[in-house]
Records
---
Amino acid sequence: MATSLLFNKPFRVLSQFSAEAAKQTLADYIDLPGVYAAGRLDFDSEGLMLLTDDGALQARISNPRYKMPKCYLAQVEGLPDQAALETLARGVELKDGLTRPARVSAVDEPDWLWPRNPPIRVRRHIPTQWLQLEIREGRNRQVRRMTAAIGHPTLRLVRIAIGDWTLGELPPGEYRML
């Protein structure tokens, strides 16, 4: 029987088990042999990861040909207008090519979201906006590059869903078995 779990990766944790330059890794939070991350989440991103020892499940989640949706909340600098949101929705031209279309909407700051430590850099005269984005590919730092391409750099990024699996009320640094 396969072992699979959902993990809420904290900010500034590597999404790997092997140590690197005194940075925290998955091994600091998960002590289950044989499970591996199905996809990655950047060191400076937070939120849902799925870990498993089931190779077929890992492939369905991480291989772009399966187009598994991944949903993120991104706090961006400035207030994107409708044209900027439509650009994200159509696909953004990045150095490695055009992204697939994304589902995107401006949303209120989630009231359930934990504080980030350290907090984002706040600039008094530049407002921020939260966006909810669903993408079906997983290029390196894709959401951050997409929002930067429309002139609204990502300040905070939290993955809240992978396919039908959601973060729910799972606290940062905790996991639950599937």
Note: Residues 82-90 form the longest helix (9 residues).
---
Amino acid sequence: MDNRPIGVFDSGIGGLTVLKEIMEQLPGEDIVYFGDTARIPYGTRSKETVIKYFFQSVRFLLTKEIKAIVIACNTASALAMEEAQKVFEIPFIGVIEPGAKAAVSSTKNSAIGVIGTEGTINSGAYQRKIRRMMPSAEIIGISCPLFVSLVEEGWESTDVAYITAQRYLLELKEHNIDSLVLGCTHYPALRYTITKVLGDKVTLVNPAYEAAKATKMMLKEQNLLSSKLDGGNYNFYVSDDPEKFKRVGGNILRKEIGSVQKVNIENI
């Protein structure tokens, strides 16, 4: 047993979808969440910049005596996780591999869609993982950058969201996909709108849920589970705008977020 907290990292607020799943699957774990809200979005930045930002965030989380880090950011998972594993001696769990595995398990016709930020899609991380498990798969990757802003504005169920989704997802409909990876932590909030566009025969794969499941399995295998069965404590840190984080984050978690502390991440 290990009662040290789990560190959860995201480039902003969307990673709370991963945190929500961890809270449900591991209710006894203490968690330290850091959202790099001052430097979002990561999806349009270079690999070198993402690695630099992520390493600063890891160093901050390590000051909180954590036992593992869940990378709730798809872009950081795709571009920085491999480098981080070479530098830091702590277990990392990303969202890419668990999401890819679930997509392969769910597809019936081997036609899989992946939507995410430009950084995630252009990295080819999901495509490589899926093809390694299913060489015959047809994988269509589409970047949907406006989805993040729609969710952060609370517009995920509006006509604007529906029209935007129609434009982005047209190619996926043409390829007759039957499984779609929601390759950005913000996108599960758009589940209803995406299903409205693609129809209910397309299975939506939520890497947030899959990452939480993988986290539980890893902690169990390495004897790192907390001795508590419930009542985990949650501490939140951001690099900018704690009030917006509390407002939008509370909607994602479906519960009020109390204290959120601001961190000058550039000095770490």
Note: The domain at 96-207 is CATH 3.40.50.1860 (Rossmann fold).
---
Amino acid sequence: MNFPSKLIENAVVEMAKLPGIGKKTALRLVLHLLKREEEATLSLAEALTNMRTLIQYCRHCHNISDTDTCAICASPTRDRSLVCVVEDTRDVLAIENTAQYRGLYHVLGGIISPLEGVGPSDLHIDSLLNRLRETGISEIILALSPTMEGDTTAFYLTKKLKPYNLKVSTIARGIPVGGELEYADEITLGRSILSRTAYDV
């Protein structure tokens, strides 16, 4: 791809490093920014710079935050006996959007994946155990993806949590609403049968 300017080329190269953005899309975005008023582009650049340099991680749950304690951990209305363990901030956002959960969170910062060189020591597991020693937590909910790595992480955490005499639960897994049984894989269908619930009329 030929560029009329080295400055444009540099911007396109950087923009194309974002996930899901190819060179053509990056060029379109760069040219769009160039057409906008200078203040708008500078405002975007400032927002990105501030995000990268000023963002913090909650000292309790490791969620992304503007301060050293996130809004969820600081809220007096949350149920402090419940902690939902998730892989990353995207999972916190997904669960919060359901408006069905009122407990606290603990963000692991990943899941155990030997193939990618991620072991238990690379995750925020020790800080989770420290939280259990200091607070009145009675239940841990493991909300991890139903993958081999997610199940490995859940198994490891369950063993680590055993000495604390807590209730350890996991999110239900099964057929999605609107899904057809014939298209469900055997593992999901099997788990749905095992985790069946009473049908109330």
Note: Residues 8 and 31 are 8 Å apart (CA to CA).
---
Amino acid sequence: MTIGPLLLIGGRENKEQHPEILERFVELCRRHGGTPRIGVVTTASTEGQALFAEYSRVFRRLGVQQVAGLNVDRRVEASAPALCQRMDELTGIFFSGGDQLRITSTLGGSRFHQILLQRHRKDGLAVGGTSAGASMMSHTMIVEGDAHESPTKNTVKMAAGMGLWNGAVIDQHFSQRGRIGRLLSAVAQNPDVLGIGLDENTALEVRLEETMLTVWGASTVTVVDGRAIQETNASESDDNQPLALTGVMLHVLPKGYGMDLTTRTPRRIG
């Protein structure tokens, strides 16, 4: 049994001159030097065909000969035998951006979802996603939230994610849209999970089997660790009352840094 890698991207990844992040995903899909075979899921977007054409072009330019479109727009399609059979042939699945709730409401609990989890947890399937395609990977995901106010219990709306990484809650377009308050609110209500804030054109590689995180790309990943929270009013505060949080651990990690998931200790890589 081999747990596959995850590649979580904060959105707006470079697809042209130096597509380092997508190159890394292709490498993760090679499966010990083999031929990468990638499926692109565009369920999050209402412009799925255009997105598939864009990612197909990029992946083929990076040497991937087989790129399959997994364009699931209706829940009834998510358990179609032909779709599930195509998944068995792939070494990697990539989720485009859009609306993460479209992903979970269309695919969550379906045969597609069951095969995705099984192949990732047992067959080493690589799974990547950008923007909404990154946020949906956690067990509990951020659906929406106000990035311009002090954090409160109402700052974020949360829902069940796809459960590929159960120990985290993920936000994207992080620094560019000032979403630290959203992540703090999510961690205050779920202090045992790691809060992950992904900047644009930046990715976090998650190796659950090796319990390691590695940062790729041009900017940073912000990690909020709530296990050491000493004081919080999250349980008794009114919905719009500012949250109190003390003892929160925060790390800002660029490329060349990572984290040991077991000890939650950041470290320099290489």
Note: The radius of gyration is 18 Å.
